[in-house]
TrEMBL record:
The chain crosses the membrane at residues 91-112. It holds the Pfam family Beta-barrel_RND_2. Keywords: Coiled coil, Membrane, Transmembrane, Transmembrane helix. Residues 53-73 have a biased composition (Pro residues). It comes from the Bacteria. Residues 239-266 form a coiled coil. Signal peptide: none annotated. Residues 19-46 have a biased composition (Basic and acidic residues). This is Multidrug resistance efflux pump. The keyword 4Fe-4S does not apply.
């Protein structure tokens, strides 16, 4: 909108009304001087337009007006304007303290599984996968001739693992065989000697009989000579010859008896010698068997099926009896969980178990309680604590619990001895029937739950479940 213009007859100074207009109407834009001059000429009469001199040049535009002051901010809302008063600081602090204390108590009760957070699940992360890991060692010494297996290879029972140079052991077998043959020959010779000695004994027995016959004849001759000497038919000389013959016959009998006894002693000596030779034969046979065993021990075989560890022997190494060559890990595994003594109050063989394996991305598998250890772990330590002297600090003992792995779980094949697991025993589940033994989870013979003579304690009476603190 344009501002009102002055009358055409007068030519007032354009600066004064423009200044007033600028102060009263700050919101309108300033009008150009040329436009105002043109408008004034249109309002003037025609005569005035022609006779009137040209208007002077317009003055320079005035400076822009100062900016308008900012609008005043609204008055703030205060407690006095609303009528509300804040609570006292002491009451707020008390409420916060009580809330924090209750929260802390609840956290402690939950962490220790105390009422009202009591649970029948007893858990611990002090648990590991176990297996009957076997150290493979040779029984013979020598240089390694061949290693036909590799690291982490799966092997069967009886498969060849290492071969040791057997040339020396073969020679020992041949030597033992020759010794045995010599002992057998000596035994046969002893039998022949015995037969010869027995024949000598028979000959001496016959000689004794002959001597006795000669003695009887000599005695008869002496009787006849004595009768003839009495009537003077035979001289005393002839009688003396007859007596001498009798004495010779008696001596011959004694000699024959002595020779027979010597022959019998020779037979006994041969018999005793034969027993020694028979023992020698048995010793030679045992030596041959030992040599053959040593020869067989030059081939190290897998005692059972499983997987090998890193093979620590190479061709050309010299090994002795008992040298650790490698480890053999069988497929049958189980879990040993070390629970606090207070957690085992309601545990019994057969109760269900769930466990998570760290190496399998916390995958969950199932099992069952198989056995509880007969004593705390401290009882099996070499240095036992002596609490009879000094200050006593009660320390919760750990009871080892053996857990069998249920069969039919694909992830169970990926378990390895030494893996860490977290076990959870459901003490409220009660004992359940043991599953059929399977590869990877079979129990030892006689170690099933409830079998007499296995050392497992009977299920205890039901008691409130203790805390499941790890």
């Amino acid at each position: 909108m344009n501002a009102p213009r002055p009358p055409a007859a007068s030519t007032p100074t354009p600066s004064a009304p423009r200044q007033v207009e600028d102060h009263t109407r700050l919101e309108e834009p300033a009008e150009a001087p040329a436009d105002r001059a043109e408008a004034a000429r249109e309002d003037m009469p025609v005569e005035a337009r022609t006779s009137a001199p040209a208007p002077p040049p317009p003055p320079p535009p005035p400076p822009p007006p100062p900016p308008a002051p900012p609008a005043a901010a609204p008055a703030p809302v205060t407690a006095a304007s609303t009528g509300w008063a804040p609570p006292r600081a002491g009451l707020t602090g008390t409420v916060a303290t009580v809330v924090l204390a209750l929260a802390g108590v609840l956290v402690v009760l939950y962490a220790w599984r105390l009422p009202p957070f009591t649970t029948a699940l007893q858990s611990t992360d002090n648990a590991y996968v176990r297996g009957q890991t076997t150290i493979v060692s040779p029984q013979a010494s020598g240089y390694v001739a061949e290693v036909p297996v590799q690291d982490f290879q799966t092997v069967e029972a009886g498969q060849v693992l290492v071969r040791i140079d057997d040339r020396i052991y073969r020679q020992r077998v041949e030597q033992a065989q020759a010794t045995l043959e010599g002992q057998i020959a000596a035994l046969d010779n002893s039998a022949q000697t015995r037969r010869s000695r027995e024949a000598t004994v028979a000959s001496q027995v016959a000689a004794v009989g002959n001597a006795r016959a000669q003695l009887a004849r000599a005695r008869a001759d002496l009787q006849r000579v004595d009768a003839l000497v009495a009537d003077g038919s035979v001289s005393l000389r002839e009688r003396d010859q007859t007596v001498a013959a009798l004495r010779e016959a008696e001596a011959a009998v004694a000699q024959a008896r002595a020779a027979g006894e010597i022959a019998r002693q020779d037979v006994r000596a041969v018999t005793v010698g034969r027993a020694g030779l028979e023992a020698g034969v048995e010793g030679a046979r045992a030596a041959l068997a030992l040599a053959e065993i040593d020869l067989a021990n030059t081939v190290v075989r897998a005692p059972r099926a499983g997987r090998l560890s890193e093979v620590g022997v190479r061709t050309g190494h010299y090994v002795t009896a008992g040298t650790q060559l490698m480890f053999l890990v069988p497929a049958r595994l189980w879990i040993i969980a070390n629970y606090k003594e207070a957690q085992t109050a309601a545990m019994a063989p057969g109760q269900p178990v769930r466990f998570r394996v760290d190496a399998l991305d916390r995958a969950e598998l199932t099992g069952r309680v198989e056995q509880l250890a007969p004593a705390a772990g401290s009882e099996f330590s070499v240095l036992k604590a002596d609490n009879a002297t000094g200050n006593f600090v009660k320390v919760a003992q750990r009871i080892a619990v053996r857990i069998a792995i249920d069969p039919g779980q694909p992830l169970a094949a990926r378990l390895r001895p030494g893996m860490s697991v977290e076990t959870m025993v459901d003490t409220a589940g009660g004992p359940r029937t043991a599953p059929a033994p399977a590869n990877g989870s079979a129990a030892e013979p006689g170690a099933s739950a409830g079998t007499p003579g296995t050392g497992a304690a009977p299920p205890p009476a039901a008691v409130p479940a203790s805390g499941a603190a790890r």
